[in-house]
Amino acid sequence: MADVHRIVDFSLESKAAGDLLYGRISGLPAEQKTVDWTVGKLKASGLKDAHAESYVSTAPLWLPVSFELRVLGDATFGAGTQDVVLKSAMPIRNATVKPAAGEGALVFVGRGSAAELANIDVKGKIAVVNVVPDDSLFAAREKGVARELEKRGAVGVINAVESPGNLLYYDNRYGCDAAPCFLVGGDDGAFLESVIGRAAKAGKQVRMGLALKAEERPNLTAWNGVATIPGKSKEVVIVNAHADAWFDGADDNADGLAVELGLADYFARRKEKPARTLVFMISGGHHTAVGAAAFIKAHPDIIENTVLVMNLEHLAQINVTQAARLDPSAPGGYAAGFWTANTTETTKQAGAVNATPFVWELMGKASKRYGVVTSYEPTPSAPGDLGSYIRAGLPSAQLISSEVYYHSSGDTPSTISVPGLERAAAFYAGFIGDVAKAPRGKLKGPPPPAR
Ligand SMILES: [Zn+2]
């Protein structure tokens, strides 16, 4: 847990430096510092070859320079009317980087389904989408709605995430092609819905001014960290965790990285060499500059001998659920709603790709033994940092989950379950032990079915 805090501190340094979209973003200093720090930890654990490897990002990094969402006061609403600037506004990457500024009437489109949009004219307006993070922005059905609204003529889109408090969110799946499109947190979203509704009752419209300036930074250098514990065989098990993060990134992915460091220390201290060579890969990530793809390209020798990749990602966030949508006791009924947290971590999805049912069996055995709660059926999909390994045909396995704090400024160490972190570490230590004993032929399965 101390390591989780230390890793999150690199994000907080980025925030303190004034980065509007802060975090451990690949190609920027916080990600490099994180990788350098993990390399130091691995060396201290006795992994003598631990080192950082640079790679050049294939896509330019999009970053906001300045922006504002301003609900405009209007004298026809009565005395004391005033502008309200939304504090949780965060613009999302779009195809154009030319500055945008505009004004329009706000229109609320619900969750933006085809059925809802059939009755709503968004042309020339700023559309507000009610995003339900079920179970997170990853799975929410409102992905892509902003682009559809832009096609229908909206001059801007605000994706309002039903979520605790007034968090910042960032996720490219909610962006637009050219129009300025934003994510806002729970209180701001509830406020917009409330004022749009109250103005409509009075036969009026609420107007908003929006502005966005962004930049693209091409050819940035990002970093992976690599370290080895030599085994009795030259066959390799890769233990991967991504270092990059939006915002604090405690569950995404400081906890995975901390467990990776814990596992390296544990296996380095054992008297007996592991049956297979363990390669610890601190990945530069997948949000903006893909670390695993660069690693695979740089190390054909390792890849050729790899029998399984296991990925440590989103391991121990507490379970948070919405108890009521809007807080009826709040003035005007527009606070973000009631949310409850329990003391255990979210249910994990067990995924294995290019792998045999035997790998799922080993995961099931380890989850029972160490009390990690997984969804009942293993799935032949494994989202997150495994993408490049899967495309390279390597058997790949992980536990993963995400919920309302995913890709938000609420993903802080206070949301990490400490016993959950221990359970995850024990799970992977047990799983690595079982995989070490399994013949290579029992691990590699057919490629996933084409979608
Ligand atoms: Zn992640």
> Which CATH-level-2 architecture of the largest domain?
3-Layer(aba) Sandwich
Number of helices: 11
What is the first-to-last residue Cα distance? 39 Å
What is the name of the CATH superfamily of the largest domain?
Zn peptidases
Class computed from helices, strands and strand pairing: alpha/beta
Quaternary organisation:
single chain
Rg from alpha-carbon coordinates: 23 Å
Low-confidence stretches: none
CATH topology of the largest domain: Aminopeptidase
Q: Please write the string of helix (H) and strand (E) elements.
A: HEHEEEEEHEHEEHEEEEHEHHEEEEHHEH
Taken from the alpha-carbon principal axes, the silhouette is elongated
CATH class of the largest domain: Alpha Beta
Report the helical percentage. 25-40%
Per DSSP E runs of 2 or more residues, the count of β-strands stands at 19
| Adjacency order of strands in the biggest sheet | 4-3-10-6-7-8-9-5
| Portion in beta strands | 25-35%
Counting structural domains, the number is 2
The main pleated sheet reads as: 8 strands, mixed
Mean pLDDT: 94
Bound molecules: zinc ion
Structural account:
By secondary structure, the chain is an alpha/beta fold. The protein folds into two domains: 282 residues, Aminopeptidase (3-Layer(aba) Sandwich), CATH 3.40.630; 154 residues, 3-Layer(bba) Sandwich (Glucose Oxidase, domain 1), CATH 3.50.30. The strands form four sheets. It has an eight-stranded mixed β-sheet with strand order 4-3-10-6-7-8-9-5, sandwiched between helices. The protein binds zinc ion (ZN). Zinc ion binds next to α6. The site of zinc ion has 6 residues, from α6.
